[in-house]
Amino acid sequence: MNPLNHHLVKKPEMGASIDELIANCALGQLPRPLDVLVKSHIALKPASQAYFHLLETSAANEIFCQEASGQVSSRQGRLENIFASKPTHEHHVGDVDEVFPGALYNYVGKSLAEIPWRWRLPGIKQYKIETAEGYEASLLWVKPGRKMPAHTHDGVEATLVLKGSFGDAHENYERGDVSIADCDVDHSPKAGHEEDCICLIVTDGPLRLTGSLGHFFHKIFG
Amino acid sequence: MFKCKSNIFGFAPFRYDRSQKHSTSALKNSYIFLQHALSVVSPSVDVFKRHLSMGVTGAVLSKTNNWPKLVADVALLQDKAAFAIIFDYFVPRLEAYLRRLGLENNIAEEVSQDTMIILWNKANLFDPAKSSLATWLYRIARNRKIDISRRNRVDFYDPTDGAFTQIADSTPLADVTMDSKIYEDSVKIALCVLPKEQSSMIQMAFYEGLSHNDIAHKTGLPLGTVKSRIRLAFTRLRRALEQKGIAEAG
User: Fold this and answer.
1) Would residue A170 count as lying in a domain?
2) What's the domain range around A38?
3) Which residue in A17, A57, A70 is closest to B184 by CB distance?
4) Are B102 and A24 a contacting pair, CB within 8 Å?
5) Do the interacting molecules here have an ipTM over 0.85?
6) Chain A 55-84, CB below 8 Å of chain B: which residues?
């Protein structure tokens, strides 16, 4: 591990709540797949965005209220370097996709229509985005009313609903909602009946779909 | 123990003593806001006084600098003197923070220099109605820090996920008419009314950036206890903010 990252990326713990993940995101401490998930959630939920903004603001105040200690070395040279710098190309991120928030679109590099889905189980398609910093990020497409696939994982699993909904007897998750589960939770909810359900799933370790035919498919496609 | 400092980028110092004359509306706003916030969360005036005595009046470091004006001068006039004032204030503090996080000197300097380069070239993107200069620079620095920490990795790196993207992507709050100065203090104020057990967890996990393990080590509490307390603390913090109506932008 790059020693530089020791204090930069704090591994979120099992069972962390979304409120804690948002705080870690405000500090820039999340591994990239979770960082994107939280930023996408924030983009879809104004109340979370406001909370995030308050935390950023408070963190900034804390830093910049401190008394300055010591002088900046080679101040003049650094200023000259800045004054000589040229503006770089600016990337505009708009609402290019009505399902993917900007942060997610940027991350995936594709719009929803361009995703090369792979059938994994009957009624379930998956697109693996990447594995990075110990986390795997996938998009999952589930047919209306289909039971969500069970998946095995060792640690945190966060699911952001992008389209449609899913739910169990206790809770219903809609666009922008995040469900956080750990390995102790036996959760096998169903996609809503009204439309296809599309989710971003981030797992601590590889996502293994284990529906009734899961092992069979896993052998073929895994 | 955290301190409930007032915002330095707009507030002048204020005191609880109402007989004092406050010359700016920001003073009045901050006072009214504090009174309101504390009375909603905890109606007791004693609590209010106690928290003020804990340091809500806080340090004020910005008596002369009008940061939005300086940034506007940089954006419109390429005013080097205005820029140097911002540089001299923010750079030492930013680098001290980055070093506290454990960054090497040269990396801390790279992050802050990049942040200042963005300020010089993109000052026109700063909108004082949406955030304070401190928050804006913090956000840029945080994103540069993330990018630089990932630079040498073999796994995914997206050059389009730079600070500019983040700036452009930081959608304004639904309620931009809310006085942005009021935003500055609300987390600290909410913390003042949380039980100490929870506020100290947030002090360590958030303001000091300690990991769960670090906190367990520092406090001598079992890791499981630390985790559940932190989890509860952030939930309570958010609830306290939302009860005040501060975090409900839409």
Assistant:
1) yes
2) 3-85
3) A57
4) no
5) no
6) 55-72, 75, 78-79, 81-83
